[in-house]
Write a structure and sequence with these properties.
7-stranded mixed β-sheet, alpha/beta, 253 residues, Spore Coat Polysaccharide Biosynthesis Protein SpsA, Chain A, 23% strand
Length: 253
């Protein structure tokens, strides 16, 4: 069965070559690019990958378009800042001949240069190995996209290495984008914040990250991450309220 490694990119010239190198064991490496303005596409072609271009709308649309464009039996989705290890490669090759239609892959996330084992960043399973004809992405989840799978999914043991965020500034920039997407989703679902939501939501998020998901395991690093995620929970509700007020200018949240 043909297995394609698919990398979604937008201006990833820093990471793309190393990511492609980590996927040499697949039958084909495809870079599905959102019209990068840097050297991403050129570097990918130099490295032997096939480059396809598709205008970015949201993450779910992008992954569905990639599934349609690829002719492999199986697809392994990898982000440019992720690296597949030889152990993971061997495990995937051994598993895709079975009855499962997908495989969840654990990730080792490095945030600010540190392996992070709490606060929701471990084991951080991602449904990335997909039987192409059996998978599609939920269009109602444009960010933190969800797979709709026709069949069962199993769990792999060997992790995908994810060099997640180099700095707090990079983390904040990405969370700003996620927050906007999530606010649109909540607004679309008819969710409306109440006055107490701006306190209760962040408090629940902090408790969930720091205590339930054991962010305390990472010490001050885990505390900082939990506080940051609590802040962006507040921001998500604030932006949801802004969308609601724009639609109903005579009412207040």
């Amino acid at each position: 069965m043909k297995l394609a490694g698919v990398i979604l990119t937008l201006n990833e010239e820093r990471h793309i070559r190393q990511c492609i190198e980590s996927l040499r064991w697949t039958d084909e490496v495809i870079v599905f690019d959102s019209f990068s303005t840097d050297r991403t596409a050129g570097i990918a072609e130099e490295a032997g990958a096939r480059v396809l271009r598709y205008p970015f709308q949201n993450y779910a649309v992008q992954r569905n378009a990639a599934l349609e464009a690829v002719d492999a039996d199986w697809v392994f989705f990898v982000d440019a800042d992720e690296r597949a290890t030889p152990a993971l490669a061997e495990e995937i090759r051994a598993k895709i001949g079975g009855c499962e239609r997908g495989w969840w892959v654990p990730r080792h996330n490095y945030l600010f240069g540190r392996l992070t084992l709490g606060a929701g960043w471990h084991p951080d399973y991602q449904l990335r190995v997909l039987h192409r004809a059996s998978a599609r992405y939920d269009p109602g989840r444009p960010v933190h996209e969800e797979v709709i799978l026709d069949g069962e999914a199993g769990y792999l043991h060997n992790p995908l290495i994810h060099y997640n965020y180099d700095s707090v500034a990079q983390f904040k920039a990405k969370q700003e984008k996620y927050t906007d997407f999530e606010a649109e989703i909540r607004h679309g679902q008819g969710l409306r914040p109440r006055p107490w939501t701006y306190a209760s939501g962040p408090l629940r998020q902090f408790w969930w990250r720091f205590v339930t998901l054991r962010g305390y395991r990472d010490g001050l690093h885990g505390l900082r991450l939990s506080l940051l995620m609590a802040y962006y929970e507040f921001e998500t509700w604030r932006r949801t309220a802004h969308l609601w007020k724009a639609e109903h200018p005579r009412h207040e949240c």
